[in-house]
Amino acid sequence: MKRILLTIAALTVSLTPALAAEPIIGTWKRSTGTIIEYKNCGGDDYCGTVLNSEYKGKSIGKMTGKDGSYKGTVNKLDEGKTYSGKASVSGNTLSLAGCVAGGLICKTEKLTRQ
């Protein structure tokens, strides 16, 4: 009986679909060669960290959202400023924007999944 229960439990686990990670999670490469990593940092929050270059280990901001659409903050490290931001993921491209004037004026950069 014990063996049957273990077999049923194993089959149930193997048939359960894996939870898909949010599209923003992973490593992304800027056109400058800088690599950014986004990780979950609680709930629907995703924190970005620079993995290489002179800003290695620095935060580039935090996004909140799901299903490929995010809003939050973007740190412009060379200026020492933080902007409101938004991001969207389409396939292997992350569009990351820093915005001013209530989001009316934005500068967007496209990053490629690594």
Could you characterize the architecture of this molecule?
The chain is mainly beta and about 110 residues long. The protein has 1 helix and 8 strands, in the order H-E-E-E-E-E-E-E-E. The radius of gyration is 19 Å and the shape is globular.
Q: What key phrases describe this protein's structure?
A:
single chain; 114 residues; mainly beta; 8-stranded antiparallel β-barrel; 8 strands
Write the layout of secondary structure elements.
Blueprint: H1 2-15, E1 26-29, E2 35-40, E3 45-50, E4 59-66, E5 69-76, E6 81-90, E7 93-100, E8 105-113
Antiparallel strand pairs: 1-2, 1-8, 2-3, 3-4, 4-5, 5-6, 6-7, 7-8
Q: Helix/strand/pairing class, anyone?
A: mainly beta
Low-confidence stretches: 4-18
Average predicted local confidence, pLDDT: 87
What Rg, in angstroms, do the CA atoms define? 19 Å
Q: In sequence order, what are the helices and strands, one letter per element?
A: HEEEEEEEE
Tell me the strand percentage band. over 45%
Please report the total strand number as a whole number. 8
Helix content: 10-25%
Global shape: globular
User: What is the overall number of helices?
Assistant: 1
State the major sheet: 8 strands, antiparallel, barrel
Strands across the major sheet, in which order? 1-2-3-4-5-6-7-8
Measure the end-to-end span.
48 Å
